[in-house]
Write a structure and sequence with these properties.
Blueprint: H1 2-14, H2 33-44, H3 49-58, H4 95-115, H5 134-145, E1 147-152, H6 157-185, H7 187-193, E2 198-207, E3 215-220, E4 230-232, E5 246-248, E6 257-259, E7 265-266, E8 275-276, E9 295-297, E10 301-302, E11 307-320, E12 337-338, E13 341-342, E14 348-353, E15 361-362, E16 364-368, E17 374-382, E18 388-396, H8 397-409, H9 417-424, H10 431-434, H11 436-448, E19 452-453, E20 456-461, E21 468-470, E22 478-481, H12 502-510, H13 517-530, H14 551-563, H15 569-577, H16 591-596, E23 609-610, H17 613-624, H18 674-678, H19 697-705, H20 707-723, H21 729-741, H22 747-763, H23 771-782, H24 785-788, E24 789-790
Helix pairs in contact: 1-2, 3-12, 4-5, 6-8, 6-11, 8-9, 13-14, 13-15, 17-20, 20-23
Length: 791
Amino acid sequence: PHYGERWARHWMDLVRYAESRGHESDFEIANAWRYRDYLVRAFNADVPYNNFVTEHIAGDLLATPRLDPQTGANESILATGWPFLGEEVHSPVDIRQDECDRTDNKIDVLSKTFLGLTVACARCHDHMFDAIYQKDYYALSGFVASSSYRQVRYESIEVNKAQARKLTALRAKTATQVLKNFAREAQPHFVELSKQPTYRVPGPFRVQLEEGQDVRVIADYTRPNLTPWIVDGPSFGSGVSAEGSLLLGSNPDEPGLRIAGYGAARRDPFWNGLKITDSANDSGSFNSHSRSGKMIRTPAFELKTGRLHYLIRGHASVYAGVGQHIMITGPLHGRLIQRPKVDGDQPRWVSHDLSRYAGLRTHIEFGAEGGSPLEVLMVVEADKPPPIEQKQLNLTRLDLSAAWKDLADGVIEKENLHAARWIVEQPKLKASQIASSYLKELDAIRKGVKWESALAVAWLDGNGVNEYNMDRGDPASPLEPATRGLPKAFGLSSIDSKNSGRLELARQVTNPSNPLTARVMVNRIWHQLFGLGLVRTVDNFGWLGERPSHPELLDYLATEFMETHEWSIKSFVARLLLTKTYGQSSTSADPAFDQKDPTNILLYRMPVRRLEAEAIRDSVLAVSGRLERKIGGKPIPTYLDEFVVGRGRPGGGPLDGAGRRSLYTSVRRNFLPTLMLAFDFPAPFSTKGKRDITNVPAQSLALMNDKLIYEQARIWAQKVLKEMPSATPEERLNRMFENAFTRRAGRHEIAILMESLPGLMELHGGNPNSEGLWQDLCHSLFSMNDFIYLP
C-alpha cells in the first residue's frame, strides 16, 4: 500500500501541491489534502493512466465515475481539485490581471504535466521555438474560464444523485393522485367556498419586460430551458419548477400541496438535512459551506454596467464570481458577497452594485442561508429593475367549479391554474391527509439518502466560454475570442461545446494517436526509477528541451505502455524494475567506459541517485522505529522553530510530525519544512517534474545539527540497547548497519567506529552502554553518504 504514497509524492510535484495559498497571509486551501489522499488511492488501485488523466481534466463530467468500493464516494471528481492548489492573491488590485495570472499557472501545469509542452510561453506572443500559437494558449484558457470552484460533497454526490432521480420520478408519478385525494378530502371546504358569488384573488405574477427597456436578462428561471441549468448538488432539483407545478410537502404535519404561481429555481426543503462533516471552511469571507452541494449558479457573462438585480424570495447567500476570485478577505472585494433576505409570500428585486467590475466576466452563485426557503426567478443587469405586475382576479362560482373539476380529474388546465392555486391554499390540508402513499415512498427515498459528507476542492462545470486572444498578453487589450481546443499542431478539431468541453479535451489528450501523452508519462516513470529521463527535460518535450538519448526506445516503451500494459503504471514500473539495466550498480565496472561515456548517456552503469528530501526524513523515522505507517488523513502541522517567522505563521506541529511520513506533513507555501528544503524540496509554484539535486555544505550541517535527526538518533540508540542489552559493540554496530543500509558493516567501517569508542566512552562517563554514546554512533550513521545515496 505504500507504493501509492511514493508515486503520489512524485505526482504532487507536477501539480504544485500545497495546502495554503501563499501571498502575504498564506491562507489555507480548505480540504486540499483530500486530493493528496486521492492520489495515494489511485496509484495503489493502479487506475489506468489514460483514465487517471481523464479524471484530472474532466472527473466531474463522467457519466459513470469511479467510486470507492467500500463507501461509494466519487473518486473521479477528487482529481479535479488540482487547478485550485496554486497560489492565490487575497486582495488583488487588478482582479482581471490576477485572473489571467492564475489561469496562466493552470495552463502551465496542465500543458507541462500531461503533454510536456510549455504552452504558457505563448501567453503574450506566438511561441518563440515550438509550433504553438498565441491563439492556442487562449484556446486552452477557455476550458479554465468555462469552469468554476466549488467544495464538493464527494462522499454523497453519487448516492444522492440516484435518490434525487427517484424523488423526481415519485413526484411525477403521484401528482395526479394527490390532486384527486385533495379534491376528495377538501369537498366540505369547497362547498363552503361555493356559497360566495365572487372572490378577489392574486393573479399571474409577471415581470414586465418590454421592447425599449434597457434591461439585459442574464438568467431567467421563470420558464424551463431559458437558462443553462448549472447546480452543485440536488437541493434545487433537476430543473426549473415551472408555473403550475405541484409543490408536494414532505412533512406529514404541514400542508401537503401547493401550486406554483410562478416559475422559479426553488430550493427543495426535502434536502434541508444535508450536513457537512470533518471539513474546513474557506478562509476569509467566502463561505463555501453555505453553498456546497446546495447551490445554483448562472452562466458566466461579461458585466456591462455592473448594476445587477436579483428577483428572489427567501434568505440567500449570493456570491458574484468576478474573475473566479475566491480569496475574499478585507474590504477590497467584500461587495462580491451579499446575504439578502426577502420575507413574505412574494419575490422582490434585490440590487447588487458591481459597477466597479464593469467589463469583467462573472457568474452569480445562489445558496440558501440555513434551512430557509429560497426561490430564484431572474437575474438582470439594468439601471433599474423592470417592474413586477400581479393583477387581482375576480373568481366566480363558475371559475371555482371549473378549477375544482380539474383538481378532481388530477390535471389542471392553464386557464384554471390560479383558481386551482387559490383553492388548494384555503383548507391547508396536511400531507398525511392527502398523500399518505407518497409519504411512505418518500420515506424510503429519505432512508437511502446519504445526509452527511465531507468536502473536497473540485471543478464545477459551467457554460462554454471562449477566452479572448489578448494583444501582447494584456487583459486590457482583448482581441477576438479563441475557440477552445488543443494547439493546432495536434491536427485536431476545435471544441465548441455548450458546456466547458473538458470531457472532449480529455478524450483528445488521452487518444492513443496523441504523440505526447504516453511518451511524457513513460519518460517520467523512467526518470523516477533511473534518476534521469530518456528526455532529461521531463517537463519540456519542445525545441528547447533536450533530445531523447534513446528516441527509438522511448517510442517503443510508449507503445508498449499503451498496448501491452494497457496504460497500467504498476505493470510498467515492474517491467522496468526487472530489466538488467535497472539492476546495475552505480559503480563503473570498467574505467574505459567512463572515458567513452562520461555523462552515462548510454547507461553502462546505474546513475548515482540521492534520496529525495521526504525519503531521507522517512528513512530516519523508519530506522529509529518511530515511523507511523498509517495511510491518509489530515496533514500534520509542520514543526516551526523560533527562527521561522512571518505573516500568517500557523501553529507548529510536533518535532517528529507525529511519526507520519513526510507526505502527510502540511505543505504551506510560506512555511515549508526547513530540513526538507535543505535537500531540495521544491517550492510549489509550478510543475517540477525534475527536482534539483544539490550537494552543498548545508546538507551535512542539517544532518549534524537538525533537532529531528538528533532526537531520532537518541530513540534509535534506546532501541538498540533495549533489543541487544548483552551484545558486543561489534554486534550492535552490525545490527545498526543492517537497519540503516540493509548490509553488514565492512571491516574498515567497524575498525573506524571501534577506534572512536574510547573517546566516546570518556565523553559519556566511561559507560560502554551509555545512551549518549550510542546516540552519537547512531547520529554518525545518519550523516553518512550511504544513508542518503543509493548504491
